[in-house]
Each structure stands twice: as structure tokens, then as C-alpha cells.
Specification:
mainly alpha, three-stranded antiparallel sheet, two-stranded antiparallel ribbon, 61% helix, globular, disordered C terminus
Amino acid sequence: MNMARPERDEGRGQVESFAYDNAIVKNFAIATAVWGVIGMLVGLIIAIKLWAPDFLGFIPQLSYGRLRPLHTNAVIFAFAGNAIFVGVYYSLQRLCKARMYSDFFSRLHFWGWQFIIVLAAVTLPLGFTTSKEYAELEWPIDILITIVWVVFGWNMLGTIARRRERHMYVAIWFYIATFLTVALLHIVNSFELPVSLLKSYSAYAGVQDALVQWWYGHNAVAFFLTTPFLGIMYYFVPKAAERPVFSYRLSIVHFWSLIFIYIWAGPHHLLYTALPDWAQSLGTVFSVMLIAPSWGGMLNGLLTLRGAWDKVRTDPVLKFMVVGITAYGMSTFEGPMMSIKGVSAITHYTDYIIGHVHLGALAWNGGLTFAMLYYIVPRIWGTKLFSVKLANWHFWAMTLGIAFYVIPLYFGGIVQSLMWKDFNPDGTLVNPNFLETVIRIVPMYVLRSVGGGLYLLGTGLGVYNLWKTARSGSFIADEGVRAVREPRVDAADAKHDYWHRLLEKKPFRFSVLVVVVVLIGGIVEYVPTALISSNVPTIATVTPYTPLELEGRDLYIREGCVGCHSQMIRPFRSETERYGQYSQAGEFVYDRPFLWGSKRTGPDLHRIGRKYPDAWHWNHMKEPGSTSPKSIMPGYPWLYDAKLDLGHTEGKIITLRKLGVPYPEGYESKAVTDLTAQAATIAEGLRSSGFKDVSADREIIALIAYLQRLGTDIKKPAVAMEE
């Protein structure tokens, strides 16, 4: 820390000279811009692939299933993640009136985070994925994320401990909650047992895995895409508007109620599934309750602008903030409404969910990010914004892009659901062929791409504007300031201090209380289902996957098929008529990870086993249009050329047995023999159906074996594996 000789301010304390570290802010700002453009470009590519599946050809690494997790990770952890760190490193130093605890930790955090993103950008297109939403990265990267996150937290908490300003402003509360809760969520959800360097199996199975994943998945949105951005809102809105925050007491209610309630809401992603009813009901109740604190925060942000609306008309920073905060209010009303079972029955598994998610991501996270960058960049380069007009063009491109993106998906999602549920007077489905419901909404996918293109165009304008702004100024790496080191609170002052004001001066106690508040809901939902296996019912006829089926399942995961197909038939007449018997918890006890899915671009596959002959799957996977005319599913020709890798088959059997899958002791030595025999049977059947040059050692054979197994356990007698 750059310190000069302290002076004394009579009655307050020492006046000290030091410098804010703007270099770390600049680094994260550049990373935000670069990864934002890349992540959005990948998003546009996969949006186009939904209506032009042959776009960019049949290259495995550029297939929809592999690019989708790359897109989500890029925009969440690369774009939004780096934006969070821009906001934290800029505002925390100024709120604490202190330089960051360690310049070395700041640099280690920056380069460590970028290295993680690069690893994700390499491994995900190569097919190394756990398939768990927002947690697709494999175990070595999970460990690296933990280390880098701890470095960030240590640096942040160390800065708070060294602060000159004794009072912790509301933004810091949200930063503390973000660090502590994300650490908890990531560690618990990442329990897995490695098979090899880039392959592992989840410690949880089936229903247990689904509960833990969506406890993590929903709260990754809550504590990575919401709470840190609320901290950013509480700092930058008053700064940009030059007005104090509307209500300090509302901030207190907003913070504590939000972090307490949010952690309970994860099960609302699993309504009408095989998850226990009590967990679904808890998720629904607490999700509806979320409206109150969420809207309290939105109103606190918008009402801070009271008296400053004239400035909103001319200041692009405030324009982006108003749209972002308004979208936050819309999303946090929509989410609880979709958590009501009757509404979820219509919207879940449809494109409506995609529209909902992107409203929050594009407007709330994107809007606040660009507002923050437009505020910070001119200040740390000691200049003015290059072009207000260009910023306004960015604003309108973003806003129109969001409208063109979200509205068609809302419309298309409702159309999907109503078509799925439509019956004729005689009780038969109006649209028994799922593909009919897909073809109907293809125009909505085209409009979605237009919206994504507009948003990306606006982002490009914004990045150019910020670059020109930086070029016109001179970067201030170490911003010299003087501040009074306030004396610590004493017992006499504490007697006259408001209780929360006193807590705000005790960061350790504050952090402990945050952990306690968050853990209450987590423990209540996590322990009964995730840790007590006996609470999950079993079915006698459900047996572990054969080695060939297991390899096929891993290929299904590698290709990202779960991004378009669910494996969870809900107990609706429309679904049982279309697919067969509804899914039961006991059918998934050997599924590591669970593959229930979040979106149906294609039909549910849980009862696909033996519905079609092997020959149908052979044709369908190579050229989907040959079996399903007008299908938007891409082909997978590389599965027919690639030889099935058996190098880890034995290790997979050993690992799964350690996790409780009842493979016989020593079965791993026989696994490859059984695999080869089953593959030979399938290949011979395909040859007898008229297909030439069918090799039993190809990946497509394993995938067919897995697909033919799905949903068949409840129809067959139990079969014991031989020793």
C-alpha cells in the first residue's frame, strides 16, 4: 500500500494518503468487453443453428450441443463474472477508503479467472462436460475455481478488515453474501469422483442429484447474477444520479429477506417431476415470497432516481441502469409466478423459460454492466465519454434487441405448451407428432436471432465507444487520495447506535450471520433427500447400465443432447398419452448425473427405448430429416467414424461401484468383454437390416444401446449381472 506520513484531523482520526488500484479494474473491464463479445457471438451462432441446423457444417466442436454450454459459461462466468469483479474492485476500494488488501492477490485472481475461462473454452467444445446446468466444467477446473474464488474472497475480506471507513455500506453486504454463498454452492454441488483427468461421476444420483443441482443452479442465478449486481446497483445508481439511496431501512429488509428466502427456491425448477412433493411445495412457497424483497430492491433503486429524471433523459449511464433495474423487477415477478404449479405446467420445458432467463441476463446483467463501464472508464482514464450519441445508439440497439429476442420466445413458448396439451373431442392428441410443435415456432427462432444480432451490434458499438474513450485519455493506474482513518467503535458509542449500524461495523459477525441465514434453508432441503438415500424409493427391476449402455450415456452427455431433450415425463395426461408412463424416482437411482433436462427442443426421451428399431436410430442420428422430415436436429456423422474409446471402461465401473452402484466385485475385468458382445449383437442386427460396413466398435453403436435402454426397466424382469 502506498502510504504517506499521516496527518491528524482533530476529533476524527488520522488523515492518510494512499492510492486506489485502478489497474485491476482496467484488466477486468477489458476482459468483460472481450469475453462479452465472444460469448454473445457464440450465442448468436447457436440461435441460428436452431432454425438452420447445418449452419457451419458438421464439425463436432461446433455442434449445437457442445456450443450451448460454452455460450452459457461465457456469458455467465466470463462476461458477467468479470463485470462483477470490475464493480467490486472499483467500488470496494472507495467504500472502504482503502487500496485492495494485496496487489498480488488481485493479479492472481485476474489471471486465474481468465485461465479458467480459457480452459472452459477448450474443454467444452471438445465434449468434456458434466452436463449439469451452469456447472458443466470437469473436476480439475472445479478445484481451480475454488482456489481462485478463495483468493478473491481473501482479498475482499482483507480489504474490508483494513478499511478506514468503519461503516460497511449496503453494497458491501451483497458482496460478502456473494462470496460466502457461491463458495458453499460450488463446493457442495461439485462433489464428484474422478475416473480420469477430464471425466468424473457425480456423488449424487437421480433425484438427489437433481435437487442438489437446482439448489445450486437457481442460487447461482441468485448469488452470482443477482446479489453482486444488486451491490453494484446500490453503489453506482446513487453515484450516477448524485443522490443518496432512497431508503436505508428498506436496504436492510431487502438484503436479509432476500438471502434467507432465495436459498429455498431451487426446487421450483423441478415441479411435477419425481422430486418429493414436500420439496416441490417448499420451493413454490418461498419462490412466491421472493416477490417482496426483490421488488423492495427494485423500488429502492428506481426511487433513488427521484428528482433526477431529467438527467436520465440525457445520461446514458442512467438509461442503462433504469432499463436494467426495471428488467430485474419484471424477471423477479415472472420467476415467482412461474413457480406456481399451474403456471409451471404451461411454461416449463418450453421456450418461455429461455425468454425469461434472457430478459434477466440481457437487460439486468447486461444493462448494469454497460452502465457501470460507461461510468468507470472515463474516470480511470481521466477523460470524458467519447460519444454520448454512440452510447445512445448502443442503448436502443440493446433495448430493441431484447424485445425482438424475448417476445417471440414468450409467444413461441405458450404456443408450444398449448399444442402439446391440445386434445381432439375423441380424446386423442391433436398433435401426436412432436415435430409439428417444433415447425410451428421456427419463425420465432428466426426473430430471436434478429434480436440477438441487434444486441451484439449494440455491444460492438459500446466496446468501440469505450475503447475510443480510453484512447482519448491517460490511464490513472494509481489514483492518489487522502482519507481519514475513523476510530473503531467503542462501548459507549455502541449504546447509542442502531443495532444494524453496529453490525455493519463488525464484518466477521456480519459474515457469520450471513452464513447462518443461508444455511437454514440449504440444510432443510439438502439433508433429507441428498444425504439420506433411503428416502429415495427404489424399483426392483431397475438395474445398472451395461458397460456399452454406460459408454453410450457418456456419449449422450458429451454431445450435449440433454440441452434439447428431457428425460422426465410429468404426470399429465398429455404427456402420458404422448410418451408413456410418467417417470418415477426409483428409475433414476443409477443416473450419475441426472439428465432430466430443462428445455424440450425435441421430444422427451425417457420412454424412447425399443419404441423404434435400431435401424431407425442409425438413420436418425446420421440424417434426422430421413426419419423426421423438416427436423431441426443436426446430424452426427462423426459418431459413425469414431472408434469407441474403451480405455476408461474398467475405471468407470470401479468408480461407480465406489459410489454405490451394485456392479459385482471384479466385474470391471469382464466389462469390456460384455460390451463387445452387446455391440456385436447390435451391429449384426443393423447389417441384417440392410446396412453395409457397420462396425461394432463405433461410437454410434454405444449411443444406440443407451437410447434403446431408456425407460425399459419398469417393463422387464430383474436381470442379475454375472460375476
